[in-house]
Write a structure and sequence with these properties.
single chain, alpha+beta, 2 domains, 5-stranded antiparallel sheet, succinyl-diaminopimelate desuccinylase activity, metal-binding, hydrolase
Length: 415
């Protein structure tokens, strides 16, 4: 990892670094598309260019920052404003990557302002939240020692696919103290930027994703009886999983904030040519878990169910993502304190909520840090063909982040 500090006089004007709208325009214009596991390359893919921009941003501010290499060409960037070691430390976290741009009906990297909105890929998920956090961080740095907390600004990579960046950061906290750096050491609290319509998400579902393979025997399609079709076998697996998913919805006890568990098959591949009986078929499964559910146990249950329902020979591959759920039994002090700040700024009161999707907050909570999810924009606009965010909410979120870090009323590190 690389830790740097630059004490030069910053060339950015105060109005530039404090304006979340201007920052968001810059962020949208820098492609940082996650290829989602596909073998893709080109200037729009991965986070390298945005990482370079962030390094320049923190360098201009003159605040200590750290570059954490996570994977080839992919890094976290973390900066820290240290006011007083006796104060609580609050981490503001936003991910650098966006989902792909296929099917978009607007120019994805040309920010467009219209009717009180700004459009572009990442405007809502989650460069809007990142811009509000960066603006807050810069404002606090400029003001010096007036904040009521030490503030860490964390910009992680690969959230949209496997959350490598968040896991890498959280793993650093479990290392011995000598290997931790002052910049990225464990915070006391964390706020994760996602589009929550300025409500506070205190619980959400987890997710485990893995593949199931069936194995056949290839032969010429003119004599299919000489082989064994992996696709026919997979049809039995798919039918059984559909039955399992229906029972899961009907019989599982729903969480009061997150709803029910779920299972879906998102992808199927098999065969090499129409004139060859297929020797391999593969599906990809998405299982959403509730707080209290263990991914290892639920995988075991699904395998046992399939073996009882079918006589097919199949194999499970290790999960490529196993993200825990976020429970609401560890973050109430943080949530209440943040809500006090929010409802002192917005006209319509906001509340604590749950979510059906997953975020980096569960990874940080699993690392021992009370975490909530909060940011501008609506999840209904995330990943859409004409992604946008309301400019008013962007500015409100910026003010909320700022006021909370400046005066985190009621926040206690004694939990």
């Amino acid at each position: 990892m690389k830790v740097e500090r630059d004490n030069r006089d910053a060339s950015m004007t105060s109005s530039t670094v404090h304006d979340p709208l201007g920052l968001l325009q810059e962020l949208i214009a820098i492609p940082s598309v996650n290829p989602m596991g596909n073998d893709l390359s080109g200037p729009q893919f991965f986070e390298q260019e945005l990482t370079k921009w962030l390094v320049g941003f923190f360098r201009e501010l003159g605040t200590p920052y750290e570059i954490q290499p996570v994977a080839d060409g992919r890094s976290n960037v973390i900066a820290r404003l240290e006011i007083d070691s006796a104060l609580p430390s609050i981490m503001l976290e936003a991910h650098q990557d966006t989902v792909p741009v296929d099917g978009m009906t607007i120019e994805p990297f040309a920010p467009l302002m219209e009717n009180g909105r700004i459009y572009g890929r990442g405007a809502c998920d989650v460069k809007g939240g990142m811009a509000a956090m960066l603006s807050t961080f810069a404002r606090l740095v400029r003001e010096g020692t007036t904040a009521g907390a030490n503030v860490i600004m964390s910009c992680t990579c690969d959230e949209e696919y496997t959350a490598k960046g968040a896991r890498h950061l959280a793993q650093q906290w479990s290392c011995d103290q000598e290997s931790q750096t002052p910049v990225s050491s464990r915070p006391d609290f964390c706020i994760v930027a996602e589009p929550t319509d300025l409500n506070v998400i205190v619980a959400h579902r987890g997710v485990v994703r893995w593949k199931i393979q069936t194995h056949g025997r290839a032969c010429h399609s003119s004599r299919p009886q000489d082989g064994h079709s992996a696709i026919y076998d997979m049809a039995h697996i798919v039918s059984a999983l559909e039955k399992y998913a229906e029972a899961l919805q009907e019989n599982s006890e729903p969480h009061p904030l997150c709803g029910s568990s779920s299972l879906s098959i998102g992808k199927i591949t098999g065969g090499t040519s129409v004139n060859i009986v297929p020797h391999l078929c593969e599906i990809e499964i998405d299982r959403r878990s509730l707080p209290g559910e263990c991914s290892a146990k639920l995988l075991e249950d699904i395998e046992q169910f399939l073996r009882s329902e079918t006589t097919v020979n199949f194999t499970f591959t290790p999960p490529w993502i196993d993200s825990p759920s976020l429970a609401d039994d560890f973050n109430q002090n943080l949530a209440e304190s943040l809500l006090n700040t929010i409802n002192g700024i917005v006209d319509t009161p906001r509340v604590k909520q749950g979510a059906w999707y997953g975020t980096d907050a569960s990874t940080f909570a699993a690392g021992g840090v009370p975490s909530v999810v909060f940011g501008p924009g609506s999840i209904a606009q995330a990943h859409t063909a004409d992604e946008w965010i309301e400019i008013e909410q962007l500015r409100q979120a910026c003010e909320i982040y700022y006021q909370f870090c400046k005066n985190p009323t009621g926040l206690s590190i004694t939990l």
